[in-house]
Design brief:
By secondary structure, this protein is α+β, with helices and mostly antiparallel strands. The protein has helices at 4-30, 36-62, 90-95, 169-180, 192-200, 214-227, 253-263, and strands at 66-68, 72-73, 80-88, 101-108, 111-119, 124-129, 134-136, 139-140, 153-156, 185-187, 206-209, 230-232, 246-249. Residues 32-43 have low confidence and may be disordered.
Length: 271
C-alpha cells in the first residue's frame, strides 16, 4: 500500500500534468463547432489527443499504467492504475457549454485513493486523497455534514424516455418525479464528474449517475468519500469499479434518496 507521502507526491505529479494539458482543453473548446457533426467529431479528436498526452506523461513520471476511456490500457485489476476521462461531458464540450471536465483517479486494489477533477473553463480544480480533506484550488473544503433531502439540490444524468437500457427511460422519469417532490431543486448538468465534485464540495446534496463506466465515477468517488459522503449504486450496494450505477450524497440525504429509488420500483418493470 502506498503511504501518505507517496500519495501526496503522486497527486502533485498528476495535478501538474492536468495543469499542463488545460490549455489544450481550452483551445479545443474555442474551435468551430457550430455544425453538430463537425463539433462532435472535433471534440472526439481532442479526446483522443488529450488521452494520449496525459497517458504518456503519467506513465513516464509515475511508472503507473493508465486505463483511459478512449484507448483502454492498463487492466483495472492491476494493483495500481490511473483511470482517466480526458473530457467528461463531451457533448457539452462540443456544443460550447462550460460544463466539461478532465477526470483522473488513482485506484489501488480496486479502490480510488486519489481523485482529481479539473474544470478549466471555470478555473476550478478539485483534489483529494483517501481520508480527506477535499481541496478546491488548493484550499481545503469543509467536510460534509448530515443534511435533509428537502434542503438539498440533487443532480441526475440525462435520459431518453423511450430508452430500454439497464435503467429504462420511464424508470428514470419515475425516480426523478419522486425526487422532485421532496428535494429543494433538481439539476441536469451533463457531466457526472462535475456533479460528483460538487457533492464533495457541499454545493449539491446528492447526485445520480445511471451509467456504469468507471472513468466517469472513480475520481468523483474518491472526492466524495474523502469529504465524508456516501457512495453506493442505485440498489444501495457499496460502489465498485464494476457497479452498474452510482449514487453519491451527504449523510442523511443519501438514505432518503435510496428510499425514493426503491419507491420507483424494479427497473425491469418499466421495459
Amino acid at each position: 500500500m502506498l503511504d501518505a507521502a507517496q500519495l501526496n507526491d503522486l497527486l502533485a505529479t498528476a495535478a501538474g500534468i492536468l495543469d499542463s494539458a488545460s490549455q489544450q482543453f481550452l483551445d479545443g473548446h474555442r474551435a468551430d463547432s457550430a455544425v453538430e457533426k463537425k463539433g462532435n467529431d472535433f471534440a472526439t479528436d481532442v479526446d483522443l489527443a488529450l488521452e494520449k498526452r496525459i497517458t504518456a506523461e503519467l506513465t513516464r513520471l509515475t511508472g503507473i499504467g493508465v486505463h483511459g476511456e478512449e484507448f483502454g490500457g492498463e487492466s483495472l485489476e492491476a494493483e495500481q492504475v490511473w483511470v482517466l476521462d480526458p473530457i467528461d461531458g463531451t457533448f457539452n464540450y462540443a456544443a460550447g457549454l462550460p460544463t466539461a471536465a478532465m477526470l483522473l483517479a488513482l485506484m489501488v486494489d480496486g479502490e480510488p485513493v486519489v481523485g482529481l477533477t479539473w474544470m478549466p473553463f471555470i478555473s476550478q480544480r478539485y483534489t483529494a486523497i483517501v481520508g480527506g480533506p477535499v481541496h478546491c484550488n488548493g484550499e481545503p473544503v469543509e467536510p460534509l455534514r448530515p443534511a435533509a433531502l428537502a434542503d438539498a439540490v440533487v443532480a441526475t444524468g440525462t435520459y431518453n424516455i423511450d430508452s430500454r437500457g439497464r435503467y429504462p427511460g420511464r424508470f428514470r422519469a419515475a425516480l426523478l418525479a419522486n425526487l422532485s417532490r421532496e428535494c429543494s431543486r433538481m439539476r441536469m448538468h451533463g457531466s457526472t464528474g462535475i456533479d460528483f465534485a460538487y457533492v464533495a464540495a457541499g454545493i449539491l446534496g446528492g447526485a445520480i449517475s445511471f451509467g456504469h463506466h468507471v472513468w466517469d465515477h472513480a475520481a468523483g468517488v474518491a472526492l466524495v468519500r474523502a469529504a465524508g459522503g456516501i457512495v453506493t449504486d442505485l440498489a444501495g450496494q457499496p460502489w465498485t469499479p464494476s457497479s452498474p450505477s452510482a449514487m453519491v450524497a451527504a449523510p442523511g440525504v443519501h438514505e432518503r434518496m435510496l428510499e425514493l429509488v426503491a419507491a420507483a420500483g424494479d427497473p425491469e418493470d418499466y421495459r
